[in-house]
From TrEMBL:
This is Tyrosine recombinase xerC. Pfam families: Phage_integrase. Residues 47-230 form the Tyr recombinase domain. InterPro entries: DNA_brk_join_enz, Integrase-like_cat_sf, Integrase_catalytic, Integrase_recombinase_N, Tyrosine_recombinase_XerCD.
Amino acid sequence: MSEAGMARNSTIRMISTLRKFSKYLLQFKYINDDFMSKVDTPKRAQHLPAVLTTEEVDKLLAMPNTDNKYGIRDRAIFEVMYATGLRVSELVHLKLDDLHLSVGLIQTLGKGNKERIIPIGDVASKWINIYLNHSRSILLKKRRSPFLFLNAHGSGLSRQSIWKKIKKYVSLAGIEKNVTPHTLRHSFATHILENGADLRIVQDLLGHSDISTTQIYTHISNHRLAEVYDKYHPEI
């Protein structure tokens, strides 16, 4: 099947269908042996998520126009996403009470309502403070909201609005990759691993219950390492 050029996942589906057919024939005694019993199912191809380079991250972060309240908010959003690796659902539910900037921490509720505490760097903290001092009160419009990041009506942002903002600024930055809000999470994890972070620490920061989920980022780092090697090694 592989020699016929079939994609790996198509091969897996074909083998699954043949297994069912073989069991059917065996059940109704059309055959005496399961002809698929010795056929191994190949592992599914591992699709590595898109990751931005540090240069691309810098370009993206610089895109919002911080001369206005919306640009300040958007810059703060992107800084927080890249500094913490928050899921977009965690970001939009981030509340003022979740901020502990004096000690450089934020807290969030992840999947399964599991709380975790995440360090937040000085740069992201700085932009949160700029947003709080110069934008949020204007967006709030004398209303009350527990949420950190607000829309033009003083309400919490939706996941869809974050997705649209990412697409807008990625286009302005001229980044030719399929970038979604999750891409900043992928980039956060990949970059800290590349700089020597322990895999277990990254697992805790991302809120993964299973470390095998986190291990995808080691594959990304190895893939990027191979690309750099191929590009720059003088003997290639």
